[in-house]
Amino acid sequence: xxxxLIINKYYPADDELRKLLLLHSRQVADRCLEITRKxxxxxIDVQFVEEAAMLHDIGIFRCNAPSILCYGTEPYLxxxxxxxxxxxxxxxxxxxxxxxxxxxxxxxxxxxETLEEQLVCYxxxxxxxxxxxRVLTVAEAAQSLExxxxxxxxxxxxxxxxxxx
Length: 165
Hints:
This protein is mainly α and 165 residues long.
């Protein structure tokens, strides 16, 4: 799969939103790849996880989040589900599951289940599109998840234990 073709379809203009999406997605993908190199014992599909990380936020353009240059009409909280719908339409149901399961540590009914879904969700928590120059620590990322409830924080810390040891 050439994830660039999908990005080009939905982000054809070489504008600031596309640059932000590519920067953030590359940060997430690189962290995923670093973790897969450190943990070769984990049965992770490396090529798939890179593709999925590059596409996990594909739906942001349809959302209303002016602070990150998104001027759509949908609430930002729906960007994962929107991305999932787009990727299913493109014929990539496995990538769609990653997109729709990466918000917080998973929205109700859309919790990350596979190692790849968990890894992309986990890696995403360290990078913000509103502050792309900053990398959060595990503690800072955990604290940022409190707004989704303490259960999500515990889930994230469990992933940190698995992926950062």
